[in-house]
Amino acid sequence: MHGAQKNTNFIYTYINSIYNYINEVFNMVGDALKTKKPKAEMFLHSPTLGTVMMVEDTLKCGELMKIAELKRRLPKKVMHQTLLGILDYLQESNKILIGTKGVIWIYNDDQKKIAKWMKNGLEV
Fold first, then answer.
1. In terms of pTM, does the model score above 0.70?
2. CB under 8 Å to 108, separation ≥6 — which residues?
3. CA-CA distance, 19 to 22, in Å (whole number)?
4. Regarding predicted confidence, which is higher, 41 or 23?
5. What's the N-to-C CA distance of the chain in angstroms?
6. E strand intervals along 1-124
């Protein structure tokens, strides 16, 4: 009987340590999410890959445009919060620049186009 009780104590200790670890992970994730957006808000309007690509293709024209103009140019309607989430993602991945005058696509491997932008001194 004593051996069975020892095994039971070990299992309870093991389960308790797993429980504590999971709580630590959730607390770290929760703290990270608090710095950005509330948990519920992050998953309300998750865009599909197709929607992200549609926004990228529209922005690749190389023109500086307001968000309202971007919404008009999109082939399909996109919810405002979803669009803002996509723009956050694109800005964090250094594909666009969002300034006071609008949004512009900056990710480009074409050195001639970049040189032209620098020469013209495009203000964003």
1. no
2. 114
3. 5
4. 23
5. 76
6. 96-99, 102-105
Q: What are the C-alpha distances in Å from 22 to residues 26, 27, 100?
A: 6, 9, 42
Q: What is the pLDDT of residue 10?
A: 63
- Decide: 47 and 74 in contact? Cβ < 8 Å: no
Q: What letter represents residue 9's amino acid?
A: N
Question: Do the Cβ atoms of 55 and 70 come closer than 8 Å?
Answer: yes
Return the structure tokens found at 61: 């024209």
- The span from the CA of 66 to the CA of 101, in Å, is 7
> Quick check: helix, strand or coil at residue 1?
coil
3-class secondary-structure state, position 109 = coil
The pLDDT tens digits for 49-102 are 999 999 999 999 888 999 999 999 999 999 998 999 999 999 998 899 999 999
Sort strands 96-99 and 102-105 into parallel, antiparallel or unpaired: antiparallel
